[in-house]
Amino acid sequence: MSMNKRENRPVELPILEALERHSQDERVSLHVPGHKSGFGLPTAFHTWAGDVARLDQTEVAGLDDLYQPIGPIAHAQGLAARAYGSDGTSFLVGGSTAGNLAAVLAAIGRRERVIVARNSHQSIWHALELAGARAAVMTPPLLSTGIGGAVWGPITPALLREAIAKWPDAKAVIVTSPTYTGVVSSLRELTLLAHSAGMMMIVDEAHGAHLPFHPALPESAVSAGADLVVQSLHKMTGAMTQTGLLHYSGPRVDTARLQRALRMVQTSSPSYVLLASIDTVRAELAHTGEERLGEAMERLATAADNLRREHPGLLWEATEGVPVDPFKWLLYAPALGCSGIELADQLRIRHGIFTEWADEVHVLCAWSYANSAQDVAAVVSALRDVGDHLQCKGQGDAHALSLDAASWGAHAIADLVELPLRTKLHEAPSVTVSLREAVGRRVVDAVTVYPPGVPLLLPGERMTQPLCDCIEAALQAQIRVDGLTGDGLHIDCVG
Ligand SMILES: Cc1ncc(COP(=O)(O)O)c(C=O)c1O
């Protein structure tokens, strides 16, 4: 049995071990799921998923129950809490989306106020809507990535201080750190501010499940003292899609209410494939994470240095003092003479490199410790190829506004605003109008470009001309825009 380098304990995998015992003991399955350990899967699917389906069991004797865990799931959740340093941890099988819904429902009641960062993922806004909460919005500053390019910056202590002074009765503060593009806020300072104002600190750390496992990475939200922390395990660590963790710590959390909220938003038939994936990735991170993350960071740092020398301005570097996750590379495509979308296309078509996201000026690369040295070399050489041969033919418009920047541009003058309660919006008479006719009116539904899933417009906000232009540009570039009606060219508004 291997030993934990950090804790010097034996590796424990309670869920996988329970599944192995079950597979040895069971001769006839007279319970759901109907595929009976994979035998009943359609052949085409079985070819791919046959082995995995043997793990796809349900809450029979010995396998515990996610809603009321007392066996291997409880044991595994305890091990996750220890690995991450929280008081308690719950497994998520609906991703950070489920975690954000549960965290908000557990912490905020009807008509209670919450201070929330403007760049929050749509799951946070959906949660606030379900909770019937009053959203007091603080808009983080923008960080420039080059001409016409910008990304959301961190929530600064000064901004939170201002928000707390304006809304001292708020129950909680919600921030996202790291952001989609890897920008990290000073969570320790923000948490202290929230706590000293009697507010709970909720952190959407969907992109930061790896942070606690290497000392050179920015501090994680749990270590910074946040009360509720939500993480996806499928984004930056090696677990199956839809997996995540919700960590809770300290006396401000009503754990019974939290568990009730989790039962409300999660399925009563959680996938044991996902539960086992969560448990095994926890074990791997706790036991060998530091080594794997360290090696990967070294590879990336060397490649980043080379890239910066060869193509100044291509790989974004945050301003001094703003920590950024080294596993996120934000490429500023005009440095190669092309647009972000063109660069992403070139990387995909010519080199088989599929990136995370692109807009007019950016391409986002999401690395993980699972990327090999060959992957890193392939990306660097592909960027060299695209740069050297100018395959993009210099069509990049360095003055085009990135989608992220556009959303900020429209809100820059109102960085502390309160949104109308969603129920009120639905009670008001609404009209369906074209995007251009919507300028100046309040929209009923959020308008969200996906990815990254941060709404450009929130329910109750007014459409502006720059946002209208930005939505039209996104539609023209065939980028997915949620929240439009009918033919996708109209929108519901009030007033
Ligand atoms: C910041 C942030 N929070 C939450 C989510 C939702 O995560 P999941 O896909 O695990 O439900 C996302 C997804 O992109 C995200 O970027």
Describe the structure in your own words:
The chain is of the alpha+beta class and 495 residues long. The protein has three domains: 14-287, Type I PLP-dependent aspartate aminotransferase-like (Major domain) (Aspartate Aminotransferase, domain 2, 3-Layer(aba) Sandwich); 290-389, Aspartate Aminotransferase, domain 1 (Alpha-Beta Complex), CATH 3.90.1150.10; 420-494, Alpha-Beta Complex (Ornithine Decarboxylase, Chain A, domain 4), CATH 3.90.100. Helices cover 38% and strands 16% of the residues. The chain is built from 15 helices and 19 strands. It has an eight-stranded mixed beta sheet with strand order 1-9-8-7-6-2-3-13, with helices on both faces. A hairpin with a 4-residue loop joins strand 16 (447-450) and strand 17. The radius of gyration is 23 Å and the shape is globular. The N and C termini lie far apart (67 Å). Residues 1-5 have low confidence and may be disordered. Bound molecules: pyridoxal-5'-phosphate. Pyridoxal-5'-phosphate binds at residues 95-97, 100, 121, 123, 176, 180, 204, 206-207, 232, 244, 452-453. Residues 95-97, 100, 121, 123, 176, 180, 204, 206-207, 232, 244, 452-453 line the site of pyridoxal-5'-phosphate.
